Amino acid sequence: MGFKKLDFTEYSEKEMFTRSESFLEEMSKRRTVREFSDRPVPIEIIENCIKTAASAPSGANKQPWQFVIVQDPEVKTKIRKAAEKEEKEFYGHRATKKWLEDLNQFGTDWHKPFIEIAPYLIIVFRQIYDVEEDGSQHKNYYVNESVGIASGFLLAALHHSGLVTLTHTPSPMNFLGEILERPQNEKAFLLIPVGFPADAAEAPEIAKKPFGAISRKI
Question: Is the pTM of this model over 0.90?
Answer without folding.
Answer: yes
